[in-house]
């Protein structure tokens, strides 16, 4: 059995700056402390993009400082708030494709984690996501060579329409192409994403797809055409993905709630 911890949409800012009154760096420290204490047996922590708020080297350096010394290996992905050049300046060891996309596989025995790069730095709307032909071809090859392995896909932008229409408008523009590709493979068991800052369950081609909250600020439950910048200080959270012989199970943990004693009922 493998346990994967997922933190998404960290939105790190320089020291001393806040978002809706919250310090994203302090929230991440608190979340990582909680997760590594509660789940020291986790095989990996995956950060599914929007690592920083402004994509500056200063913000990536703060992230590097916070992650230094983590007792669990960490894999990093990019989101719409990130920028490849300053990211790779601070994290040069991160695997990239020949075309420079920040994509990699992490093999854990018979499991394969596939971390995709949906960032489109040229997006007219500045925030929507893309899987261009190069990235799709790379994914196709990684799935083909993993025949017989169970694969979990990680994307920043969700792979289904969430009903938050303002966020869907700046969502992944390549869902039809991804769906066609997944039709040619039978080894993807689960997709994990972020971007929305809410806990959501959906699917693509019948494959379960989960979206997690941020460790910092959340999207209020305001479905329909709402401004995607709307934020609310609901509890910070991270995801827990269990990969076992029985299947894939997805949990979320709100780590900023006060400690409450558990009580047996009669
Ligand atoms: Fe975000």
From TrEMBL:
GO function terms (MF aspect): cyclic-nucleotide phosphodiesterase activity; metal ion binding
Keywords: Hydrolase, Iron, Metal-binding
Record CDD domains: MPP_GpdQ (cd07402)
Keyword Coiled coil listed: no
Native species: Roseovarius bejariae
This protein's name: Phosphodiesterase
Key word Hydrolase present: yes
Family indicated by similarity: Belongs to the cyclic nucleotide phosphodiesterase class-III family.
Residue intervals of the Calcineurin-like phosphoesterase domain: 3-198
Taxonomy, superkingdom: Bacteria
InterPro entries reported in the protein's UniProt record: Calcineurin-like_PHP, CNP_phosphodiesterase-III, GpdQ/CpdA-like, Metallo-depent_PP-like
A Pfam family reported for this protein in Swiss-Prot or TrEMBL: Metallophos
């Amino acid at each position: 059995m493998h346990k994967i911890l997922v933190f998404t949409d960290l939105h790190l800012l320089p020291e001393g700056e806040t978002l809706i009154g919250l310090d994203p760096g302090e929230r991440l420290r608190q979340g990582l402390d909680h997760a590594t204490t509660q789940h020291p047996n986790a095989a990996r922590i995956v950060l599914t993009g929007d690592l920083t708020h402004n994509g500056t080297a200063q913000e990536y350096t703060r992230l590097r400082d916070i992650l230094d010394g983590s007792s669990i290996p960490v894999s990093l992905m990019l989101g719409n708030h990130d920028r490849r050049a300053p990211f790779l300046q601070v994290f040069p060891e991160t695997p990239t494709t020949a075309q420079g996309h920040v994509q990699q596989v992490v093999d854990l025995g018979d499991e394969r984690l596939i971390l995709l790069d949906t960032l489109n730095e040229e997006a007219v709307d500045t925030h929507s996501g893309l899987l261009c032909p190069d990235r799709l071809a790379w994914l196709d090859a990684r799935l083909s060579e993993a025949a017989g392995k169970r694969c979990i896909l990680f994307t920043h932008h969700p792979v289904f329409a969430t009903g938050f229409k303002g966020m869907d408008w700046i969502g992944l523009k390549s869902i039809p192409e991804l769906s066609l590709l997944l039709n040619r493979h039978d080894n993807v068991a689960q997709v994990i994403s972020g971007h929305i800052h809410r806990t959501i369950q959906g699917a693509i081609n019948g494959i379960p797809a989960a979206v997690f909250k941020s460790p910092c600020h959340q999207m209020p439950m305001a479905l329909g055409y709402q401004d995607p910048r709307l934020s609310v200080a609901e509890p910070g959270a991270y995801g827990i993905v269990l990969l076992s012989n029985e299947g894939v199970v997805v949990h979320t943990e709100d780590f900023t709630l006060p400690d409450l004693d558990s009580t047996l009922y009669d």
